């Protein structure tokens, strides 16, 4: 798995604490009944003398509320209490009104939802259950998780020898799912994080493995953790959606925990990562535009961390290690006159005029461990302009880069032995990569999966020795053959070409009469989610057209693509979206009366803005946990993410130009009486990132504007849109289980 520092580069070379990889297994049901789980003893280390007890230690912390940061002016208690009471009363009244509206409307769709549920469950059983869960190989052993059960098997025997080490229920966390697993180098300890769907915080549990697994320690509010040595664990704590402290804890005879690192800048978020050869543990401090890395020598885990390169505004970097050299994936440096394929003493250069005529976004560089500052960084490989680095994996003798260019996926293999680079174009239908979880550093084969919204994951293997790509057959998984993939380019307002990926059924006729579902995001340098979803495949089978608009602000074409769509460039993303939908209609993909727009989280900004500025382009809009009141949110510095998000949206408190600009596109601020499309919004009562009050107020204001317009025009057959809000009591910010996703 990649750390956050690497994810900065992979997500359009920016960082956001909002989005980190999550596992969402189904609810705990152990399929391996014939192997009895071992009894798990709970070790209570809260006192000086450890005793066994039967009750599980710790618990998932309750959902946090927003709290003021240092430097925030706190009003007097009397005024503050009055304001809170008024705000709470308004919130309760709005919520009660929307819940009543939902209860009146939802029965209308019962027959339809019953049919959809049955079809989705059929597809889920057909595809998802065949995919299996990630395997983690450690020497002769393989560890894996299935439905809340942790298994151990011998690598050569496969799952036939699998035995259950323990289950989530054994630990007293039946309502949580396993988010992360890390095993100590000597396999004596296993650290796992458990997360409830109703909270952003995870609890880390350290198990001492053996004939009788024992809970050694429970640490609440943990974000990331890595083993620096056999019995030395480093971890970060999360508070108010921020990670700024790094701790070290030991499990030897002299057990102790100490603070190792504290980040003082509220814009920065800290996480941990181990280099693939386990030589260094890296402490990565990242904002959305800048990063800084500290190294912990795993041979000397108690020594103070050493700085690789002090943070430099605009420079993001991630560290790997190989043979006393640091390999640095970074945005540092100006474009060179030549593109260096491999720049050691055996440089093979290609003139940019014949290969790449523009600026590259990121580079692979290297430097000696002892001299790691940026003046010693040497270029190894540079990416072309508009090429997105999707993932990156370092092996003992090779480096693999997963690249995206103009919507197509490529595999780039750099050999440190033969000093060569091989570029392999992957199948045209593929939209998403997923690397094998925790591949062995010395392996001769790299395993990964390819998928698309309508193509279930397919397994592939690249052999370093044979220098070829192999598609691995999976039994009993039907092959999707009736879906056509089309890639288009729409010309935006400033002549920029914006990629669109379109899926439709090959057998569909008269596409202009078919319903169209358009997807958009366009923020934080993050790509649109194009992984396989059962509902997307069902839509294709039902005759829908699916379109994914890769607008500016996202990361589909690298760092510059993101920069061109953030802060004072945010309107470019809106212009891109409008151009994409217009082109789709012009080319005969549906028509406005059959077009719906879907977005989640920050994608709600562009979707909501289009709904205000060009409502005639769409008939319906579906939003999940949408960010739709940018101005008011960015004016409230006591909210936990406001300061961090200034690098994406700007700072309206200190910049009047920025305030006016945000106000010009903010969905909530620009609602007016006009003919709106129908709108369906899903929100979460426990969402700590998007306050529910803002969504409630948006829905009320939008509904009022639509009704005002209808009353003024009074034409026969006047269109009055449905504006529906479903507030779900469980789940949190677009992170839901299969069951919750199915219900929605």
TrEMBL record:
User: Transport as a keyword?
Assistant: no
The segment(s) forming the Peptidase S9 prolyl oligopeptidase catalytic domain are 532-708
The record's keywords, sorted A to Z, are: Hydrolase, Protease, Serine protease
Any one GO MF annotation of this record: serine-type endopeptidase activity
Q: Which family does it belong to?
A: Belongs to the peptidase S9A family.
Q: What is this protein called?
A: Prolyl endopeptidase
| Record-listed E.C. numbers | 3.4.21.-
Organism of derivation: Donacobius atricapilla
Q: Which SUPFAM superfamilies match?
A: alpha/beta-Hydrolases, Peptidase/esterase 'gauge' domain
Gene Ontology cellular component terms for the protein in this record: cytoskeleton; Golgi apparatus
């Amino acid at each position: 798995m990649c750390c956050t520092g690497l994810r900065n580069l992979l997500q359009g070379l920016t960082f956001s604490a909002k989005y980190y990889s999550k596992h969402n297994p189904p609810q705990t049901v152990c399929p391996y009944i014939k192997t009895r789980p071992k009894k798990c003893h709970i070790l209570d280390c809260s006192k000086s003398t450890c005793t066994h007890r039967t009750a599980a230690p710790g618990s998932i912390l309750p959902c946090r509320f927003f709290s003021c940061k240092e430097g925030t002016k706190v009003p007097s208690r009397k005024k503050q209490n009055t304001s809170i009471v008024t705000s709470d009363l308004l919130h309760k009244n709005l919520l009660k009104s929307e819940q009543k509206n939902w209860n009146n409307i939802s029965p209308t769709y019962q027959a339809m939802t019953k049919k959809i549920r049955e079809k989705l469950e059929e597809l889920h059983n057909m595809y998802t259950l065949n995919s299996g869960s990630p395997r983690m190989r450690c020497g002769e052993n393989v560890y894996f998780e299935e439905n809340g059960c942790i298994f151990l098997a011998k690598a050569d025997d496969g799952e036939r020898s699998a035995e259950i080490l323990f289950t989530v229920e054994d630990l007293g966390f039946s309502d949580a799912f396993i988010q992360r697993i890390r095993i100590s180098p000597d396999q004596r300890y296993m650290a796992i994080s458990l997360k409830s769907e109703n909270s952003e915080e995870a609890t880390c549990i350290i198990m001492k493995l053996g004939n009788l697994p024992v809970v050694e320690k429970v640490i609440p509010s943990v974000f990331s953790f890595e083993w620096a040595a056999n019995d030395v664990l480093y971890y970060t704590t999360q508070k108010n959606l921020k990670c700024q402290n790094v701790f070290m804890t030991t499990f030897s005879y002299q057990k102790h925990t100490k603070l190792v690192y504290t980040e003082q800048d509220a814009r920065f978020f800290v996480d941990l990562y181990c280099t693939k050869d386990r030589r260094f543990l890296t402490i990565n401090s990242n904002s959305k535009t800048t990063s800084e890395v500290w190294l912990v020598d795993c041979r000397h885990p108690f020594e103070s961390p050493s700085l690789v390169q002090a943070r430099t505004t605009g420079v993001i970097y991630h560290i790997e290690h190989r043979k006393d050299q640091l390999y640095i994936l970074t945005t540092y440096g100006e474009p060179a006159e030549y593109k260096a394929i491999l720049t050691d003493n055996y440089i093979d250069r290609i003139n940019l005029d014949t290969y790449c005529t523009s600026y590259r976004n990121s580079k692979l560089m290297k430097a000696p461990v002892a001299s790691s500052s940026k003046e010693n960084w040497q270029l190894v490989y540079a990416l072309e302009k508009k090429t997105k680095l999707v993932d990156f994996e370092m092996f003992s003798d090779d480096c693999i880069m997963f690249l995206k260019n103009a919507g197509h996926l490529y595999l780039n293999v750099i050999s440190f032995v033969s000093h060569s680079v091989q570029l392999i174009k992957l199948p045209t239908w593929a939209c998403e990569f997923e690397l094998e979880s925790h591949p062995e550093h010395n392996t001769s084969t790299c395993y990964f999966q390819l998928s698309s919204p309508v193509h279930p994951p397919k397994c592939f293997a690249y052999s370093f020795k044979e220098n070829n790509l192999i598609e691995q057959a999976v039994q009993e998984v039907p092959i999707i053959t009736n879906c056509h993939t089309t890639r288009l380019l729409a010309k935006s307002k400033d002549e920029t070409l914006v990629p669109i990926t379109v899926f439709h059924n090959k057998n569909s006729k008269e596409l202009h009469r078919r319903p169209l579902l358009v997807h958009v995001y366009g923020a934080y340098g993050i790509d649109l989610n194009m992984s396989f979803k059962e509902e997307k495949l069902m839509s294709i089978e039902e005759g829908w057209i699916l379109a994914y608009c890769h607008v500016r602000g996202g990361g589909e074409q690298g760092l510059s693509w993101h920069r061109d769509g953030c802060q004072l460039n945010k309107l470019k993303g809106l212009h891109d979206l409008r151009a994409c939908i217009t082109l789709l209609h012009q080319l005969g993909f549906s028509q406005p009366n059959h077009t719906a727009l879907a977005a989640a989280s920050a994608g709600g900004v562009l979707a909501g803005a289009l709904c205000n500025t060009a409502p005639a382009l769409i008939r319906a809009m579906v939003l999940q946990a949408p960010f739709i009141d940018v101005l008011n949110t960015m004016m409230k510095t006591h909210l936990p993410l406001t300061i961090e998000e200034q690098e994406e949206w700007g700072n309206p408190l200190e910049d009047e130009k920025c305030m006016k600009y945000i106000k010009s596109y903010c969905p909530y601020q620009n609602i007016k009486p006009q003919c709106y499309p129908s709108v369906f919004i899903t929100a979460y009562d426990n969402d700590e990132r998007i306050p529910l009050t803002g969504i409630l107020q948006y829905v009320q204001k939008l509904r009022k504007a639509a009704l005002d317009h209808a009353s003024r025009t009074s034409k026969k057959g006047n269109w009055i849109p449905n504006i529906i809000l479903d507030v779900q009591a469980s789940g949190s910010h677009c992170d839901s289980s299969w069951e919750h996703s199915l219900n929605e």
